Amino acid sequence: MILLSSIALNDLHRSILERDNLKSIHWSAGAALPFVGFSVAMFLFYSLVPILLKTNGSTMLNLSLLTSDMWAVIIRIFAYHEKVDWMYFLAFAAVSVGLIIYSGGDKEENPHAGVADEEAGSGSCNYGTMEGSLKTGETSNSFLERVGEKDNKLVQHDPYRTPIAAS
């Protein structure tokens, strides 16, 4: 629904402010193809970024975006037949090695996983824990605060979850 309203707003904006420019364009396949290609590229980017963020996290996204300049280098070489400096290739290799090292590294396990109320049925609340890897973008419980001890048990406070009554 947001997509459709954005398209309508964009078309309204374009028809009001850029009417004269649109009339002056001689529309052909060569003129329309860049617009279509850009639209497809943006659709794929905005469709795949949430998947990348979910599976690999924001660090991997930022490292991956560093490789986007290589597309400009490829276009410069093959479309414009220009030479590029060797430093582009060195930088691309360094970023690629960084991506491989980061994605292949051990995933940090949450050190607080498994800490919970051990004595169920004592009338206290159990907030539980969430196991997951910090590297893959899963939720960690490192934001939990210790609010004190009650009956020699660790009580945790999580402002985003409601307490679950112990059975």
TrEMBL record:
Residues 146-160 have a biased composition (Basic and acidic residues). It is a multi-pass membrane protein. It is found in: Membrane. Belongs to the SLC35F solute transporter family. One of its GO terms (cellular component) is membrane. Coiled coil: none annotated. It comes from Cannabis sativa. This is Uncharacterized protein. The lineage of its organism: Eukaryota, Viridiplantae, Streptophyta, Embryophyta, Tracheophyta. GO terms for molecular function: transmembrane transporter activity. It comes from the Eukaryota. The chain crosses the membrane at residues 24-49, 86-104. Residues 111-133, 146-167 are annotated as: Disordered. Keywords: Membrane, Transmembrane, Transmembrane helix, Transport.
